Amino acid sequence: MPDNKGLLYIPDISGFTKFVTQTETKHSNHIIQELIEVILDSNIIKLRVSEIEGDAVLFYKPGQAPTLRELIEQTKQMFVNFHSYLKIIERDRVCQCGACSSASKLSLKFITHYGVLEEVSIQNFKKIMGSDVILAHRLLKNNIDESEYLLYTNQYTEEQAETLPQEEWVEEKSYSENLENFGTVDSTYITLSTLKQNLPEVPPINPAKEVEGDPDIVIDIDAPLLLVHDALTDQEHKWKYVEGIKEIRGAEDINRLNSSHTCVFDDLEVHFVTTGHSAEKDQISYSERAEVSIGVAFTNYYKLKAAGGGTELSFYLIQDDSDNDKNNIVINFFNFLKNKFIRKKVLRNSTEGLGHFKNYCESKYNEQGNSGD
Questions:
Q1: Does residue 348 form part of some domain?
Q2: φ/ψ (deg, to 5) at 203
Q3: Considering the chain, what is the average pLDDT of its residues?
Q4: What DSSP character marks residue 200?
Q5: 313 Cβ contact partners less than 8 Å away, ≥ 6 residues apart
Q6: Would the pLDDT of 127 be above 90?
Q7: Can you tell me whether residue 362 is helix, strand or coil?
Q8: Using 50, 70 and 90 to split pLDDT, how confident is the model at 222?
Q9: What is the CATH number of the domain that holds 11?
Q10: Which one of 47, 270, 282, 357 has the largest count of C-beta atoms within 10 Å of its C-beta?
Q11: 372: confidence class by pLDDT, cuts 50, 70, 90
């Protein structure tokens, strides 16, 4: 075996092109970044990374190739972790944009080849080059009528002496393709779709309780439901309608269940945690817990309902009564008075704030209409 031979292994995200070209760039790019990190973290046979290629990772391993059993276990681990993470994204999803809504349609395919590796150093990075690297990439654009599989060339299997692992989902299928400059390339592939049927369960999150009764505030917004929802749930919009805000700390790129951020004002800070979300046709509910640095906490609960061409927003203020003492009537009485005063003040501020929010949403909708978006 020449000293410069080794394994090439490329996990490639199926559906990537449609995902990034037909959905919102802001969230699609971040979701792909998260999924690439899942792939990198699932590298159990300690492959080296040559480069990250947008929708794929070029792994390699100089010297003796990993066994077929190791290769299949590596592929299984990466595939299962990838789809388990997509299930978590879907479970925790708040955003209704195309990227967040369609992420679960993404999948993985894997190309494996064994050949000559030309390892070169470019500044502080090591990169592999050569005709076998080109061949492995050419095999990504094959004619297999599936989107979830592990393909390995005969050059790889010639290095193997062991038989296939005895697992029900492992079934080899032969594949050949004539490639320009390479001639006929014989390969084998294993379909991975069956693995999705046995994914580990994603632990559920206790849903926030549905709020009933009359809302504290109701406003009509002359803007579509999804625009209002996006403005309400994407923290970056707060800069445009929350008065006096100086800083937003810790905001995550995509708001999901249990996501948090802190709004900083001159005299206090408010720490928000997303606690609930549900979406049905023409109606969305959203809740967030707010902890104020002066020692009070409450939950903002919103119901958004499509109404004609606009949105009806119902707001419920749920105050935290955890400081009550069931054994002390006096303390509870003073807490009642204090909470009543705080609630009145918060509702007054909320009414004013939702007025600013209404103006922002309507202005944003008018701008979109005028620009033809």
A1: yes
A2: -55, 130
A3: 89
A4: P
A5: 218, 219, 220, 221, 228, 302, 303, 304, 354, 358
A6: no
A7: helix
A8: very high
A9: 3.30.70.1230
A10: 357
A11: very low
Cα–Cα distances in angstroms (integers) from residue 313 to residues 118, 304, 348, in the given order: 61, 5, 16
Q: Which domain holds residue 326?
A: 217-371
Contact partners, residue 45, CB within 8 Å, separation at least 6: 61, 66, 70, 71, 73, 74
Q: What is the pLDDT, as a whole number, of residue 321?
A: 61
- Could you tell me which of 115, 185, 182 has the C-alpha nearest to residue 143? 185
The amino acid that residue 81 corresponds to is: N
What strand order describes the sheet that includes 107-116? 48-52, 57-62, 5-14, 107-116, 149-153, 183-191, 172-179
Which whole-number Å values give the CA distances from 92 to 19, 79, 193, 278, 303, in the listed order? 19, 20, 24, 10, 18
| Domain finish residue from 164, 196, 228 | 196
Residue 344, C-beta contacts closer than 8 angstroms, at least 6 positions apart? none
Average pLDDT over residues 262-291: 94
Backbone angles phi, psi at 14, to 5 degrees: -75, 135
Of 2, 66, 11, 15, the C-alpha closest to 36 is: 11
Does the pLDDT of residue 335 top 90, yes or no? Answer: no
pLDDT digits (tens, 9 = 90+) for 140-164: 999 999 999 999 999 999 888 776 7
Enter the tokens of residue 24.
Answer: 């919102």
In contact, 344 and 298? CB cutoff 8 Å:
no
Are 179 and 37 members of one domain?
yes
Distance CA 240, CA 220 (A): 19
Residue 244 CB burial class (10 angstroms; 0-12, 13-18, ≥19): exposed
